[in-house]
Design a protein that fits this description.
By secondary structure, the chain is mainly α. It has 2 domains: about 300 residues, ABC transporter involved in vitamin B12 uptake, BtuC (Orthogonal Bundle); about 30 residues. The protein is built from 12 helices and 4 strands. The strands form 2 sheets. It has a two-stranded antiparallel ribbon. Strands 2-3 form a two-stranded antiparallel ribbon. β2 and β3 form a beta hairpin.
């Protein structure tokens, strides 16, 4: 892990000592959870070259699994130990991701967007109409987070650190996956699928594996989100949260896993404090203007623009040093 990332993690570790419970729960923890969801999208976009609108669906599958197999006040489901419920949630989201990949394996560009959007909307309407598993419009409420090693995740400080550990693990998994042979094959499919097939590597399993891995990451956010919100319904997997994840990814930048979390904190700050300056009804307009500005002025996102500026400054400094050395030699 690089020094800047270690510094950021260190700041996030000590930050709860200096912020209120509101900032801890509604700003920082929420941003981390949304960042993990956006990370599952930026992974696909950066390394496979596709935009998936199904990430909230995958997160929702994990969330509904926790609700069904965990304690709730709805009266539906089978309560299992939390560890088994989490394992099932991540398993189902991973398998669902693989299924999405199998459906969209030959789609790129606008076609992958439309296919994954269709899957997302189909799942949304299915949850609204099914009452035996998803409980229709109402969904599940009264979902309680478990206690781990005697520490209750219902405590905001404990839950914050749990989400921080999960986000660090998700980022670590993405970095390790992309540098593995399978991850390199995924990038090869993005850059030159024909060449990958020419050397004897079938592209379909590679694409499905990438979608499955993104489903696992999205599932992590789904588990954490349902524990934080203590409820889940069809509105949790609707069009609005689906687009929100895309906005977060674009704002933060897709070149580095950290971009997803920068986009998330930016989005949450706007979402939380825009009502202090404008009417709540103006939020969509404000976030739309922010997105338009990012796309036009900084298409690489906030993090991408920062890294590009840093690279230009370093190049300028190197050139200045070379000119100084050259002038000294001439003298």
């Amino acid at each position: 892990m690089s020094r800047p990332l270690l510094l950021i993690v260190g700041i996030l570790i000590i930050l709860p000592a200096f912020v209120s419970d509101f900032w801890l729960n509604q700003i920082l923890t929420r941003s981390i959870i949304l960042g993990i969801a956006a990370l599952s999208l930026t992974f696909l976009t950066t390394y496979l070259g596709v935009v998936s609108f199904a990430q909230i669906t995958l997160a929702g599958i994990a969330g509904y699994t926790i609700a069904y197999f965990g304690p709730n006040t709805t009266g539906l489901g089978i309560e299992l130990p939390w560890l088994f419920a989490v394992a099932l949630a991540l398993l189902f989201s991973t398998l669902a991701g693989a299924l999405v990949g199998a459906i969209a394996k030959k789609s790129v560009g606008i076609y992958s967007i439309m296919i994954t959007l269709a899957i997302s909307m189909a799942f949304f309407y299915f949850t609204r109409q099914n009452y035996s598993i998803f409980n229709g419009w109402t969904g599940y409420s009264g979902i309680t987070a478990p206690a781990i090693f005697g520490l209750s995740l219902e405590d905001s400080l404990v839950f914050y650190y749990a989400t921080l550990i999960s986000a660090t693990a998700a980022g670590f998994l993405v970095v390790k996956f992309t540098s593995s042979p399978l991850g390199l094959a995924v990038q090869g499919v993005k850059d030159a699928a024909r060449r990958v097939r020419a050397i004897g590597i079938p592209t379909t399993p590679v694409i499905i594996a990438a979608y499955a891995f993104s489903g696992f990451i999205a599932g992590m956010s789904g588990v954490l989100n349902v524990w934080q919100q203590e409820r889940i319904s069809s509105f949790s997997v609707g069009l609005s949260p689906t687009i929100d994840v895309l906005i977060i990814a674009v704002i933060g930048g897709m070149r580095h896993p950290l971009g997803a979390f920068i986009g998330a904190i930016t989005y949450v700050l706007i979402d939380t404090f825009v009502i202090d300056l404008f009417s709540r009804d103006r939020f969509n307009m404000i976030i739309g203007l922010v997105l338009l500005f990012i796309v036009m002025a900084a298409p690489q996102g906030i993090l991408g623009s920062f890294l590009s500026a840093k690279k230009r400054i370093r190049k300028y400094d190197n050139n200045a040093i070379k000119r100084k050395i050259k002038n000294d030699c001439e003298i």
